[in-house]
Each structure stands twice: as C-alpha cells, then as structure tokens.
Specification:
mainly alpha
C-alpha cells in the first residue's frame, strides 16, 4: 500500500529540533558548530536550505504527476481498450521558478562548513540532473503518444519508456531522502540560534512536532493499509496521541503570538490540524469496515498535511 517515496511530501525544511540530536539528546559534533555561529550566518544557512526545500517540493510535485501519467500509459497499453484514449494523456505544465536573491541553490553559502558545502554542491547537482533525466525520458514518451507509434510496435516502446520514467523517479526520490536529511539537520542546528530568544519559539516547536507526528502516522497507514486490520490497533494508538497533542497545542497561551501579530496564523494551523483529525477518523472507520485503505484516501490525508505545512509556512513568514 505504501506509495513508495514518490508520494511522501517533504514540504517543510525543518522537522522536530530533536532531529539534529543524537540518541543522548545532545547535538552531534557535526551540527553543534552551526549553533555557535552568529544570527546572520544562521539566517544565511536557513535561506539557503529553504531554497533547496522549494526546489525539492516543486520538482517532486512535477515528477509525481509524470509518474501518474506513465502509470496511466501503461494501463492503457496493456488493456484491450481503445488506444485512442492515450491521446487524452496531456503532458503536465511546469512553470519555471526564478530566484532574484543573491543566494543560489547551486551555490552553497559560505556560512556552511566546508564538508557541507561540498555535500550540497554534489547532491543538489545530482538531484537536478536526475530531474532533467526524468523530464527527457517523459518527453520521449510524450512524442511517442503524439505520433501514435503504439500502432506500429503494439506499445512495446511506450511500456519501456513508462517503466523508465518510474525507475528514474525512484532514483530521484532516493536522492531526495539523502539530501533532505542533511537539510533538516543543518537547518535545525542553525534554527537553534534564531529561536533562542524568540517569543514564537514554543509555537514553532509545537507545530513542527505536530507535522512530524502526522507524517509518521500517515507513513504507518501507507505501509500497512492494504491489510488494515493488522495495523488498526497501532493506527488508533497513533491517532489518540495526535488528538491529545492537538488539544494541548491548541490550548497554548497566545499572548506572545498576539504580540507578534501571529495569533490568527497559529489558530489557523491548529484548525487545519483539527480538520486532519476529522478526516483521519473517517478514514480509519471506513478502512476498518472494508479491511483496507485506498490510494485516494491516503492522498487526501497527504493533501491535508500539505495544508498544515502551508499554514506553518505562513506563520513563520
């Protein structure tokens, strides 16, 4: 049931601060140096890692759409239906993004240590190259469909290209996991400086913990949703914990948030979390009755998490 890494959104750069720590709860030596930098250096690191997150989100969303199209192509080519429906598969449009700031995603900032500068230089280039390869492969598939070459080879090349899109996408998302892991660690370590004396610290930590907990909950459903009865108890336990945390965090004193004109933004985040819980409760009830979860239900939960992430991003602007 788990839709591989293809459908796991990593929409926010900064997960729980604890991710920057080792098992003893102490900052690892590789990250602690960032916590000793100046606030301006920390902001520079955050700005750079946010560019990587933006790149990752934009490219990942596009790759997911290409993979869905490739899946549809395969479905139609293997079926005995009318191949004319292949003409209805439209290549997704991707609007290019432009960065007008001084910091560029392919040029790691000096505020990073030398090892991380080399790491991001290599990994961002590889990530971008993989994305370009997927686009190029899909362009061949798009041409194949437009030329209706499936009438000549009974779909052989189309099936091969669709499979290539998927396999290249898996490489792309495997690279994303490695890249984003270090993004989270570096950004979290730098954020310690920025949040140290911030009146919004408690709200930010709460929201980040909420988003990570929701992500873990969805992962549980994705991994075991095909036979929901086997995970129903674990899913209910995880849901109960989410519900408890949402209530506690929604009850935080908003005095400091109001002083920074962030009270309504925080309430909006809590409301989106509440809406997620309502959807999750409906989904679990339905899955328990039918014995399994559908891809559509999981996608809806992921979309609801994306809404939470968007509310978080609005709060931190």
């Amino acid at each position: 049931m788990k839709r591989s890494i293809l459908y796991i959104p990593l929409g926010f750069a900064l997960t729980a601060i604890a991710m920057s720590c080792n098992n003893n709860g102490k900052a690892s030596s590789n990250n602690s140096a960032y916590e000793e930098k100046s606030a301006s250096s920390a902001n520079e690191v955050i700005e750079y890692t946010n560019l990587i997150v933006d790149l990752s989100n934009k490219n990942s969303d596009y790759v997911v759409r290409l993979v869905k199209n490739a899946d549809r192509v395969e479905e139609l080519l293997k079926s005995k239906g009318n191949p004319v429906f292949l003409n209805s598969i439209i290549k997704p449009i991707m609007i290019p993004s432009f960065s007008h700031g001084k910091i560029k995603v392919d040029q790691p900032v000096d505020a990073l240590n030398k090892a991380d500068q080399a790491f991001f230089k290599e990994k961002v280039a590889g990530f971008t190259s993989s994305f370009d390869k997927i686009k190029a492969t899909y362009a061949q598939l798009d041409d194949y469909l437009k030329a209706q070459d499936f009438k000549d080879d009974k779909g052989a090349k189309g099936l091969a290209l669709a499979d290539s899109v998927r396999s290249n996408a898996q490489v792309f998302f495997d690279q994303k996991v490695v890249l984003m892991k270090r993004v989270n660690e570096v950004a979290d370590a730098s954020e310690v400086i920025i949040l140290k004396d911030s009146p919004l610290k408690d709200y930010i930590i709460a929201m980040k913990a909420d988003m990570q907990a929701v992500r873990n909950y969805i992962n549980l459903l994705e991994e075991g949703g095909e036979d929901y009865n086997k995970i129903s108890a674990a899913a209910q336990t995880a849901y109960d914990a989410l519900e408890k945390d949402q209530a506690a965090h929604a009850a935080l004193d908003l005095t400091n948030a109001e002083k920074e004109s962030k009270g309504s933004s925080y309430k909006s985040f809590c409301d989106s979390y509440h809406e997620f819980l309502l959807m999750a409760k409906r989904t679990m009830r339905d899955a328990k009755e039918k014995g399994a979860m559908t891809e559509s239900q999981l996608e809806s939960l992921n979309n609801s998490l994306d809404t939470m992430i968007g509310r978080y991003n609005s709060f931190t602007k």
